[in-house]
Amino acid sequence: MNWGTLTGALFSTGLALTLLWLRARKITLKRRVEPYLRVPEPDARPARSAQVRGPFAFFIELIGPWYRDLATWIQQFSHRSNRLRVRLEHAGSPLSPTEFRSQQVLWSIGGLVIGLLLAVPLAVSGRVPLLLALFVATVFPVSAALLRDWMLSQAITRRAAALATELPTIAELLALAVGAGEAPLGALERVSRRTEGELNRELRRTVSDVHAGTSMEAALRALAQRSHVSAVTRFADAISVAIDRGTPLAQVLHDQARDAREESRRQLMELSGRKEIAMLVPVVFFILPITVVFAIYPGLTALRGGL
């Protein structure tokens, strides 16, 4: 054992802890102004002062900044979990944020195993440097976690496209049901029983919320929040306003179906324009060079034979 290295490490650790302790004891402007802006919590402040007077006062003061930083990081992570919960709802996934993070960890472990299976034989045989092997073993788990997150984003995009595609048909069916004399809730129940798809599942959930005691306006508002699609949001808001103001609901639903079809047609035109530009890539880089080679090669062969 290298005692010089151990002594240096212990000295550096003690020096770092001392500097952190001195930094924690420094009274900042925030700590001076905070008592005058916010009422101290009845449980936190006295407990902290009582603990500081004990035999472990130095240790409490030493780890105090780290504890506060950890609490701040946990709070930020909870906000991220809330955003992840919203993304899972938009994707229509039954997973919770904890289950999704667990899947990401499992994907990272699988990526780490694959990276080690590739990097260790290459590093042992000397085909690649050790740093490159470590880089490969690090990239695979990170890429696996990012791949799982990318798959969630793709699921959100696919679900949004499915909701926008199914909306005109659902709106027309609701308009027919309401025009035949059905109540709004009865029309939703009838259409949800006769159709299939992403929007149908959302309608079933809305009907279940209403039967559970939620008002129609609140259930439609929740439907708009879960869908995260502008057309579905306008659809839910239009139904809610029509029910609230007594506007003829059948005409509102016909107008929503027509607007949804127009928006779908506009998005299709935009997509075709982007695909048209993307189609030029294989034409310019693959088909055109081969055509030029076929046109020039016979002439070059004839000139070479003549020479």
What sequence of helices (H) and strands (E) makes up the elements? HHHHHHHHHHH
Please give the alpha-carbon distance between the first and last residues. Answer: 79 Å
Oligomer: single chain
CA gyration radius, whole angstroms: 32 Å
Number of strands: 0
Low-pLDDT ranges: 39-52
Alpha-beta content class: mainly alpha
Describe the global form. flat
Percent range for helical residues? over 70%
Average pLDDT: 77
**Separate helix tally:** 11
The CATH class label of one domain is Mainly Alpha
Question: What is the strand content?
Answer: under 5%
**CATH fold description of one domain:** Receptor-associated Protein
Main beta-sheet strand count, sense and barrel state: none
CATH architecture of one domain: Up-down Bundle
